[in-house]
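To: structure desk
From: M.T.
Subject: fold request, one chain
Message: Could you run this one when you get a chance? Sequence is below, nothing fancy, just the single chain.
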Amino acid sequence: MRHTLIASLVAAAIGLGLAGGAQAAPVDKQVTIRPIQLCDDGGGNCAVVNTYEAAADKIWAQGGLDFVFLSTQIWNSSAFRILDADVGEEFAMFNAGSTQFGNPGVTGIINMYFVGDFQVTGSTLYGEGCGALVFIAACQGEAGVVINATDVNAFNGGLGRIDTVAHEVGHVLGLGHNDFGAGGANNMMTGGGTRIPATNLGDIAPDGANRDQLTADQITEARRSFYVTDLTAVPEPASMAVLAMGLAGLGLLRRRVA
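Reply: Done. C-alpha cells follow.
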C-alpha cells in the first residue's frame, strides 16, 4: 500500500509538470555513482573532483531521483588523465575502468571519471555520458561518464558549470540533446552550445531563472533506466556510518543486559 501511494504521488507530481519543466516530485529513486579521480602514474597532477551533488540532486528532484555518490576512488594512469575524444580515448578508459572498478552494465553503478582535460578539435568538451542502449553504437558499447574537471570547475569565473554532472548522467539514463522535449535553452538535456545552465542553486527549476528543466517525458524515460533503483538500494556513506553506530550501540546494550 505504501509503495502504491508513493508511486501515485510521483505520477501525479510528474503529470502536473508544465511544458516549461516539472515541479519537484517525492524522491523515491536513486542513481548510484562511483567518482574516480585520474592522476598520473606517479600519483600526481590529479584532477580536482567536484561532483556538484547539490545541483544534481535539485535538478533531478524534478523526477523524484537522488544522486548517491560513493567514496572517491583514485586511478593513477597517465594514459587516461588527459583524453582525446577525436580518437575515442574515453571509450578505452571506460573499458579499462570496467575491469578496474566494476562494469556499470552489471553493477548498476555508474563509473564517473574526473580527468584533467577532455580534448576535441574545434570546441570544448565538458563531459560525456554513455550506457543507454540508444547510444550503444556511438559509445562503442561502453558505459561510464567522463567529466573534464579543469574546464567544468573553471566555468563561470570559477563557480563551475554546475549542471554538467546531471546532464551527462542524463545521457546514461537514455536522454539525448533533442528528444523527449529537449532542445530549448532552459532544458537540462539540451546540448552545451545552446543550453543556458543555471549558475547557482537558486536558478535551478522551478526557482529563479527556471534553468535546467526536465520535461515529463524526460522524467518518464529516465526513471525506467537500468541505472535507477529504489532509494534504499545502496545506502549513502553517511547513512551506513549511522547504521554501523546503531548496530554497535545495540551490541553494547545487549552486553549490558546480559
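Reply (cont.): Confidence is low (pLDDT under 50) at residues 1-19, 238-258. Let me know if you need anything else for the meeting.
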